[in-house]
């Protein structure tokens, strides 16, 4: 098992996060068992105030059944981590949440993903505003080949979020401050975004995402290409952002999942095996497959 108490964090951040997780669990979670074909997902799959509600989500790539009957809620103001071995379906599920799988011709998604009373897979849904509402930060930083300022201003401009240059400037500054980047780059906004370090580029991408007022931020291994110092900054930023946004993070680092998330979901071979509070998943998992994975018996 991972001893959460031994995960290094500055000062009393770890204890504070543990207290916050317990408060979140008492307020929002109810334990449930969801029947599926020949297995069951165990744990806290539902929350009291869901931002997104996924029910029986299946993903097919031509004849390959990549994700099977996934049922889970994404709560308001929570960080939920998706863990599991490579190829287990966690990134496939993440891409379902803002229809990034639409870009794959052979992909077919069934089941319902409800947000604001609508199924996001309904043909009437415009994916452009959907992907503003449910933003995504990728594994490798991908700033636009534009200035730092234009990286942030681009989204608000095309979505009509600013009526003039003054409002646009305010959005840029606020987004960079929320991403913890303003003090580092405020004197070089006209320089290319690609001139920043890897960690700064990733925070720039986060600032670009929050500039269009999302409700949910999806993160697909956002720290895998970063050094430990840059990783720590991203994790601290996530801790701050979850007061305003729901965050879903896919990570191969169980230590990272234990540090940053309120809940953790374990995937295995296309099945969602277990969902629970992060403390419970890493100290007393209910399913043998979960225990085998976090103790290193396979993965």
TrEMBL record:
A single cellular component GO annotation: membrane
CDD domains on file: ABC_PstB_phosphate_transporter
Gene Ontology BP, a term: phosphate ion transmembrane transport
Coiled coil location: none
InterPro entries hit by this protein: AAA+_ATPase, ABC_transporter-like_ATP-bd, ABC_transporter-like_CS, P-loop_NTPase, PstB-like
NCBIfam families, per the entry: 3a0107s01c2 (TIGR00972)
Record bears the keyword Transport: yes
Name this protein carries in UniProt: Phosphate transport system ATP-binding protein
UniProt GO MF annotations: ATP binding; ATP hydrolysis activity; phosphate transmembrane transporter activity
Keyword Cell membrane attributed: yes
Residue span, ABC transporter domain: 52-294
Organism per entry: Nitrosomonas communis
Keyword entries, A-Z: ATP-binding, Cell membrane, Membrane, Nucleotide-binding, Phosphate transport, Transport
Organism domain of life: Bacteria
